[in-house]
Amino acid sequence: MLMMNIRGVSPVVATVLLLVLTIIIGAVVFSVVIPFVNDKLGDSKDCLDVFEGVEFPESKFNCVIPTTPTVPGRTGFSVKVNKDIIKSVRVALIDSNGGSQVYDLSATPPTPGLTMVGSGAWAFPSTGGQKSYFSSGVYEKAEISALTASGDVCSVADVVEFEICDGSVNF
Q1: I want to staple 78 with a disulfide (CB 3.0 to 4.6 A). Which of 44, 52, 101, 132 is the partner?
Q2: What pLDDT score was predicted for residue 81?
């Protein structure tokens, strides 16, 4: 009978081969999965960058002047920008019937109907700063959302419910 001298693969070589195979499989999976996820997310990840970047701060101007026989009603609100990436926001003023008036605020003035409190040229809040505005009409609450650079509207960042203004507020 003929005896063959057959040797097996050493345990060290087998372990190294398994590690190399695992690394190769991991690299292939990541090279497919990461571009796929980035493609599916698209611009929606931009909203993560502006998360908690805008709010309605506590302000005496977050209030309503009711309509009287001689004076039309007005609603005021203040906007604060907390992140320098935010260049525009969307404010929706909501009335008691569920109707709304929507304004996109940026460095350029929005459509007529929204005015800055006080005298002066139109301005958008700088980072860390706030500005106050008012709109004709009586509204119950307002919602604010950041807008991405591509113009997408992110989820509502803050809500304010309006009270009647005290006598010291006039806009």
Answers
A1: 132
A2: 96
Where in the chain are the domains?
11-42, 50-164
What is the reported pLDDT for 168?
Answer: 80
CATH of domain 50-164: 2.60.40
Q: Mapping DSSP to helix (H, G, I), strand (E, B) and coil, where does residue 18 land?
A: helix
pLDDT at position 4: 66
Residue 150 DSSP symbol? T
Q: Residue 159: how many CB atoms within 10 A of its CB?
A: 13
Burial of residue 77 (number of CB atoms within 10 Å: 0-12, 13-18, 19+):
buried
Query: Cα separation of 77 and 72, whole Å?
Result: 17
Q: Which of 167, 95, 86, 169 is nearest to 132 (CA)?
A: 169
Output the six-digit token pair for 31.
Answer: 């090279």
Give the CA distances from residue 65 to residues 58, 73, 140, 142, 160, in Å, rounded to whole numbers and listed in that order. 17, 5, 11, 15, 15
